[in-house]
């Protein structure tokens, strides 16, 4: 299977999972803002790692809720995506959004006064 096909499958998995997660009635998942950041399907389409991030909820509880709803999610994916096999889902917490926000806050705290003063002294 070509790599570009796996990439398209990964993208379609992310799109479908985003819509399916809105339908889950488990309060551990529905009460928190859960977003799917990426999907990684193995070349034989038997397994898929689903990367998710959570805002406004307990990450461990959301992961348990997603794991308990994985059968329903897998069934819905099988209905919408036309794949030979529906992959078995495993959910992995992705903290890249939080890490990006942390780096952004650090960059906003940097003061440029020393650099501007040094440049002014060099010009004189």
3D structure, described in words:
- By secondary structure, this protein is α+β, with helices and mostly antiparallel strands.
- It has a single domain (3-95), classed as K homology (KH) domain (GMP Synthetase, Chain A, domain 3, 2-Layer Sandwich), CATH 3.30.300.20.
- Helices cover 56% and strands 19% of the residues.
- The protein contains 6 helices and 3 strands.
- Strands 1-2-3 form a 3-stranded mixed beta sheet.
- β1 and β2 (47-55) form a beta hairpin.
- The termini are far apart.
- The mean pLDDT is 86.
Secondary structure blueprint with pairings:
Layout: H1 3-21, H2 27-30, E1 33-41, E2 47-55, H3 59-68, H4 70-80, E3 88-93, H5 96-109, H6 113-123
Parallel strand pairs: 2-3
Antiparallel strand pairs: 1-2
Helix pairs in contact: 1-4
Structure described in brief:
Helix content is 56%, strand content 19%. The chain is α+β, with helices and mostly antiparallel strands and 124 residues long.
């Amino acid at each position: 299977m070509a790599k570009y096909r796996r990439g398209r499958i990964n993208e379609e998995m992310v799109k479908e999972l985003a819509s399916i997660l809105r339908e889950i009635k488990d309060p551990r998942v529905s009460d928190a803002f859960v977003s799917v950041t990426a999907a990684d399907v193995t070349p034989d389409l038997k397994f898929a790692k689903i990367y998710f991030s959570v805002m406004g909820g307990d990450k461990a509880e959301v992961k348990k809720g997603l794991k308990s709803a994985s059968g329903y999610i897998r069934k819905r994916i099988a209905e919408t995506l036309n794949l030979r096999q529906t992959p078995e889902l495993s959910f992995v917490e992705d903290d890249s959004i939080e890490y990006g926000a942390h780096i952004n806050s650090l960059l906003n705290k940097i003061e440029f006064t020393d650099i501007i003063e040094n440049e002014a002294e060099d010009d004189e």
